[in-house]
């Protein structure tokens, strides 16, 4: 982990400045394209290119089960996780549809599904069959958490070697909003009532029960807020740890990584605590309808590009923002300058 963290370098501010200069030459009032200009500057700083092109892009969907589902905290049964994994590899999920629209590939990774799964399109990096029930014991050992992080890193390294330069985080795991809320509480000190949302659409009674389960998990495991890996291992999830690896791997390879919703943002918070420089490589896609997401983004230091009232996960919001990144690139490459268009400056 120390070697990985040391390999992550700051983004190149010289190229941020060069992108800024180019944007100011374009036929528009300075800053008038708002967040599109922010994206263009960040892409230049990350890649070391004023006009980077992302021909190959991928959303990496990490899948894993959660032992805490034994506590009855979800509207859906745990067997939905492997069922949805097959939906991903067969191309029928929402993230598949949106990825096709964005010209991106979906890479589904089994890092901890509680089932034996095989398919040519499924990447198998299983650490164990689901986490333990965090309301009764630590969800993972520290070693298991590190193994799941390593799985995410390896997947990104392999894709980067094939020419992929833009990544998005996706997740699948019934019960993972419970784990993400626990991570949020442990790392920020926010109260359980503000962190725990309704996940897959639970009613008031189950929502209050879910809060009590998160509180119990925190009291029993006593995660150390000064040690993000300890928090991840004790109250996190295998797919969340895998996404930490995806984020760190993207930063290591000097590639932008678009963060999806609540679960992905919990992984982003852990990654930013482990390697603060990794936050410069992240873009927050959307503000989830899940309670607590805004607090997670605030803790990482990110602002969302979209607010669509989405709470599906899978990487759906992140893949939507691939289109915005492409749009920012086209502005940089195709928009006329004042000089080339013969337009007078203000």
List the helices and strands and how they pair.
Blueprint: H1 2-7, H2 13-25, H3 35-47, E1 57-64, H4 80-89, H5 94-102, E2 105-112, E3 122-124, H6 142-161, E4 166-172, H7 176-188, H8 192-195, H9 204-221, H10 228-235, H11 238-252, E5 257-259, H12 262-274, E6 282-284, H13 293-300, H14 316-320, H15 322-334, H16 338-341
Parallel strand pairs: 1-2, 1-4, 2-3, 4-5, 5-6
Helix pairs in contact: 2-3, 3-15, 6-10, 6-11, 7-9, 7-10, 7-12, 10-12, 11-12, 12-13
Report the major sheet: 6 strands, parallel
Low-confidence stretches: none
Percent range for β-strand residues: 5-15%
Principal-axis shape equals globular
Share in helix = 40-55%
Give Rg in angstroms. 20 Å
* CATH homologous superfamily designation of the largest domain: Nicotinate-nucleotide-dimethylbenzimidazole phosphoribosyltransferase (CobT), large domain
CATH topology assignment of the largest domain? Rossmann fold
Number of domains: 2
Describe this structure in words.
- This protein is of the alpha/beta class.
- The protein folds into two domains: 2-52 and 330-341, Orthogonal Bundle (5,6-Dimethylbenzimidazole Phosphoribosyltransferase, Chain: A, domain 1); 57-326, 3-Layer(aba) Sandwich (Rossmann fold), CATH 3.40.50.10210.
- 50% of the residues lie in helices and 9% in strands.
- The protein has 16 helices and six strands.
- It has a six-stranded parallel β-sheet.
- The longest helix is centred in the middle third of the chain and has 20 residues, at 142-161.
- The model has no long low-confidence stretch (mean pLDDT 97).
